């Protein structure tokens, strides 16, 4: 290894750190390298690759830490000093066995790090991120035979088998019509464990139970945001679109592994997550309806802590639709569970809105009245008054009820207008984050205009159906997503944790289009996944899930927090579909810095770099860099 590696170490270290720091860090690097070798030798799980970089790809990098870099004289020095002169020529490609890697949800990591996780509490499905030294700093290859995904709306019903080569769900759930293998495709007939006859009929049944007009679950725009827990391949969410409802489908990577991967490949908003010990990453009072059909969650455990978490994210007057044997079976065990659940939800002040055909729908109170009328000492208790109901990143769940603010309680609700007026009507929660209605409106206007410009910039490269799954990595108030209202897309809005109070504003928006424009609806979902500190952590999603990533001043923020822009670029590459786009708007030196990595990232299928017009949100001299990722193949075929 010796000589060759030395040379490589030097170049990568220089690129990453600049020459000044180089010599002092060389020692640390060699030390780290030897620890790694030790660790490979002793504790790597059997069957895992000893090296991240694929064997057939030696020319691209001998060992996973090392990139082949070449030095180019040229670009003038910038804030980044001498390292700005270097162009990184290539990054190693990971082993094919990592083609579905989700770094923070990689269960082999728990095993390797010997983390103690309580399986009863589902801690093994919660996030455990690799420490810096354990990251695979390599590009994730697509599986053999990967094809550009089938576009929406056809993708609702079919995906390429080669893109997610796992057919065990089709076999296991064949009687429930989850999915069916059909030649080189996998089809989704719309069934689920609880709705073999199809999610569409089941949704109508729920609307009828609630006596909503025209059997339409949107209830004239009052129901807009839905959380589906234990969602399978997300057919429930897929069919809610016809009712103009956006659902976020949530499931862990459990025995039904790949269910969320299928949902995302289909173009349905979904994310990996679990009701375990940590709060869901959503602010309080964000969903009008929560749904669980045969979701295999024990709601009675730990004094109802999981049901109380659903209660936290439900709006005043929100519904919980529960379809499960306990709601109808007459055997003793199910009766006992049903009675215990009925008792628990009564103490939580929920009422039965309807119970019929194996489904029960509970409704949450509109005011604090019932909480106040409970006998002293009734469990579950109210959360303490200093509890921030909206804090949601890495917050341990508590078995308590989050009461409403005085304002919500006396207004008997959130004072939200129905959808679609919600999109442009400022939410009263703006007050809570100290933003005036004027600022909010200005933000919306700027983003409308910016998005138009971005689409013009991309025009030569895109078709009408190029985008379906979009992530706005710095969502602010959701203005970017709101501007995409005419497009058949959904947007995962991400907010850094130190700004997470803004997230509720995004939830309180809806859309601003008239009903006829809403067919095959674009929609908007908010989730925040990272803080500025955690911007260096990886997202809870599969590789190749997004068609477009939007990063507005993200890189500058990340760098201010002392995280690595390079790590973030590699993470973005992981999430980005082949031929997907990235829009980066940032300060000029940062854009120049990023441009040095485009070839190595294989983001040079198409590049556009323009100076934008100055607007109300501009921060000094900025540039808009839009790039397109190449479609390339992993080992053994050469890229
Ligand atoms: C896991 O959590 C449950 C519930 O809190 C507890 O009863 C059990 O003892 C824990 N198990 C371990 C191995 O810590
Ligand atoms: C339900 O109502 C919404 C308007 O609130 C409408 O856009 C949608 O097409 C309706 N869906 C069905 C299936 O009737
Ligand atoms: C629901 O139950 C009623 C009788 O209680 C029955 O008439 C109806 O067909 C059932 N509907 C469904 C969708 O199963
Ligand atoms: C999450 O919180 C726990 C304490 O509850 C802490 O030990 C851990 O470091 C935190 N993790 C992150 C990523 O902040
Ligand atoms: C949608 O937004 C535009 C401006 O952005 C506004 O003029 C229009 O009234 C809004 N429509 C609705 C239904 O709120
Ligand atoms: C969050 O952190 C970023 C980066 O340090 C900083 O620019 C921003 O002002 C912070 N936001 C808040 C609300 O503190």
UniProtKB/TrEMBL annotation:
GO terms for molecular function: methyltransferase activity. InterPro entries: Put_SAM_MeTrfase (IPR004159), SAM-dependent_MTases_sf (IPR029063). GO terms for cellular component: endosome; Golgi membrane; trans-Golgi network. GO terms for biological process: methylation. It is found in: Golgi apparatus membrane; Membrane. Its EC number is 2.1.1.-. Keywords: Glycoprotein, Membrane, Methyltransferase, Signal-anchor, Transferase, Transmembrane, Transmembrane helix. It is a single-pass type II membrane protein. PANTHER family: METHYLTRANSFERASE PMT9-RELATED (PTHR10108:SF1103), SAM-DEPENDENT METHYLTRANSFERASE (PTHR10108). Belongs to the methyltransferase superfamily. This is Methyltransferase.
